Amino acid sequence: MDTAITDATEISLDGCRSIWEMRSDNWILLVDDLGRLSVLAQNHSDFTTTLKRVMRTIKSLSPIESYWAFPGERVFAELKGMIERRELVRAHLVARRIHRMLAGQTYRHESVSLENEGDLPSQIETDEERQAQLSRPYFEVLIVDEMSASEQDALRRRVQRKRSVDDDFVFDIVVVPSFEDALIATLVNFNLQAVVVRYGFPFRSQNHHLTALRRVLDGLDAGIEALPESERGPLLGRQIAQLRPELDLYLVTDVNVEEIAARMGETFRRVFFREEDHDELYRSIMRGVAVRQRAPFFNALRDYAKQPTGVFHALPLARGKSIQNSNWIGDLAQFYGMNLFMAETSATSGGLDSLLDPVGPLKLAQEYAARAFGAKRTFFATNGTSTANKVVVQALVRPGDVVLVDRNCHKSHHYGLVLAGAQVGYLDSYPLNDFSMYGAVPLRQLKKTLLAYKHAGMLDRVRLVLLTNCTFDGIVYDVERVMMECLAIAPHLVFLWDEAWFAFAYCHPIYRQRTAMGSAAKISAMLQDPDYAARYEAFNAEFGEEAWKDDEKVLNTRLLPDPSKARVRVYATHSTHKTLTALRQGSMIHIWDQDFKDKTEEAFHEAYMTHTSTSPNYQILASLDVGRRQVELEGYELVQRQLELAMSLREQVFRHPLLKKYFRFLGVGDLVPPEYRETNVESYFDEETGWSNFETAWRTDEFALDPTRATLEIGATGLDGDTFKNKHLMDKYNIQINKTSRNTVLFMTNIGSTRSGVAHLIEVLVKIARDIDERVKDLSMIERRIHDKRVRSLTLEQPPLPDFSAFHPAFCATPSASNMATRDGDMRTAFFLSYDDASCEYIDLTEAERVIAGGRELVSALFVIPYPPGFPILVPGQIISPAILEYLRALDVREIHGFRPELGFRVFTEAALARARQIKPPRAQKAASS
Ligand SMILES: Cc1ncc(COP(=O)(O)O)c(C=O)c1O
To answer: What's the whole-model pTM score?
Structure first.
């Protein structure tokens, strides 16, 4: 039998969900098989099959290992050689050691090296070791150069010789020989922190096995291959920067260093001439990582905590004083540890800073956050995105300004809009009746609304478009397209993207393209690009003035904004605490507004003052600072892992015979109707095409689904979402989830999710399914009929979700005829009118149906919000429609805020409405009369 492991066979990784998971699984398989071989006699019947499998495993691992510094190509080749020479006992020991070092991450520890024979530690066992690792983090540097194995070894030794005890980090190198390999390594190797692109390397990879990984190269222009070598490096830099902007890039060139440095300064941190300055390159790499690792506010707070201070100010708990003195509350310090209280202070000097007027470490921390999330400016908020949203709305909206907003946005917007006195134009998201939830607002509806304002001569009154990206259920907009097309109609528009659930997205190239900040940067660059100006001119000439009069044509055309008129004014709010590392309520406001300084800075400052506590929580601020550090140093890895875990969870439920009887994770085909999926992609992962659907759909479709938010349809169990959550997941198995709908529950993976956590969830689902199966088997005939009816109701008979009806004319700025198209209302007046008991009365559901049928317009005085689904089906000033009543009647939830079961709806009296019609707020009246 031929035992040589040749590289000739193509190994497809297409069906593989996760390269990293596959890597780990393959090492386990290899160790197991080598263990078996090392004790089997060669003539044993299992020997040949096992050896063949070992060879297959080595072939699968081989291309992947070429992108990592550990164990590295040389050691891997040695292992291969041992197997070929049948030194199987030795091969088993080496493979086992490598696997242990990978699994325990001990290779990151500088003192561990495979070359030392003897017994190497395979786990971090002592605190000192852990401390050593933490104090000198490890990373890898990608070198793009065509080098022989001995040249690579020499370079590695040179780098190792440069190491000094004073270094803050320790790094190893990975060398790849081509443009394509460099891009693949950028995606595969999460240990990378820097890339050194050297002069003269081929374009194509010789690594033919990686069909799955090669997909990342799909979008590459074939013309790149024909580029002169001197241009290849700069271009590679730009491509890597797009994939992973956090990496530090260095270019070592043989030609025109000055010219390239001037041209490429933005992409490369530094450009070096030939090999002339190794020391400087080494120091630059270290410094580049140190810059990202710095956490100025956290560090300042830690230093402050160490200083001796006497407190003659507020906060008795500072330094733990009021706890240490106490006979009764010592357990608080026992539980949290003293550091928490040492870091509690109301001081804003002595190395600390004031959030309301930052000049020191908080100012820096916010600047670093802007860098990490691709913003021009970032502000921290210690009161959650609920407050961040109100700050932005107040900063941007003057009383009477029209704000177009999705009705199922978070309640902080509704209240923020009331406070700001906005004219609120609610937009309907597409309904997902089968699952009792909403999707997102179709671009067509948004364009249609803007056109209505244009026709009414009121386009300039529309100030802000406010949308939720992504929604609770994971629906994600094509942010760039929405803004481009809206700006084509209304070039002055400002956008607020509520990305409460999407803070993590900037870490990953697939997600990043649909973030507010990523899109703002792209549009901004585009609008300044002469090529875009030419594209716009061509579009404009072809589309023509006349076409603007034809709404259908405008709606059906992909519009381009006029670069001489459009402004890029984009705001995003992040609940950093929801998806990244930050204490609860830690949020950020990110801004890319080219008019910020001229038009908004002062108003923003006032709004920030309105809503920000004068005692912001320092621990929250420090956690935001450190959360940002994590994003810049390991965000990509964590998000990719989270994505893969979510895919794994979905797949396991899909495959399991019992689970699939009762449960189904909703895919993009369920949550995004076909008209918003140009690619027709129904599912993001399948065995044949792997992930390619996911990437294509996210690039193309009007709406995409974030697979890390996994909605499980549970109607077949006969249990509603609320019961399933509380009685089964929480009470019995301590599994916490948040959102439910009538027949679904939402599971979210996050950057803290683990493989064992997912395994536990699967185990619990299996137990629940088994319980239900048993219970259903034992049902009597009558009980069975009841159960089937319940299942039918949950799976087939959902109450249709009602659209926004209309604001009553008493709260409309414009006469009702045009208002049907423009639809905005003065919610603030209605909201405060409801404070007046004499203007309101209560009316129950049946009575409401009767009086509406009799012709009376009933107008809600309150927000009416059923939980679930948690969005207002009525807002103050809104007409109660028969569809809304029908929905409420069919809804079987216990909790409906703003609706008192014993009294019914709080509505305005007819007299109050008549009075309100006459007294309109001054601005609204002016608008109505103009
Ligand atoms: C879309 C959206 N925006 C804003 C918020 C409020 O965020 P926070 O909890 O950080 O105040 C939430 C909370 O769930 C949300 O879902």
So the answer is: 0.92
